[in-house]
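Hi R.,

Here's the chain you asked about this morning:
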Amino acid sequence: MPKKIVEINNIINKLGTVKPKTKMITKEPSRKQVIISMSEDNVKIIGSNTNFHINSINKLLKKANLNMIVDFIDTEKLSIIITTNQVTSSHNICEA
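And the predicted structure, written out as tokens:
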């Protein structure tokens, strides 16, 4: 019987040493990226001339008096990823 108690104690002690996982919740976006879904053809068009589109978006952001600039655009099959100099949302990009 004491052997069983020692085994149970060991199991309980091992459970106590497991670190609890921290759950982080933010109210605002925590990344500097905006993902915009679009057709594969549009992604190809934007991907073929990203510098032009970066410059155009930055001009519009400046006109909208937003202290944000687009650093680069990355393309995926059905979306583009716009990376900015600060945390943003698609609402800010579309607002410009």
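The chain has a mean pLDDT of 77.

Let me know if you need anything else.
M.
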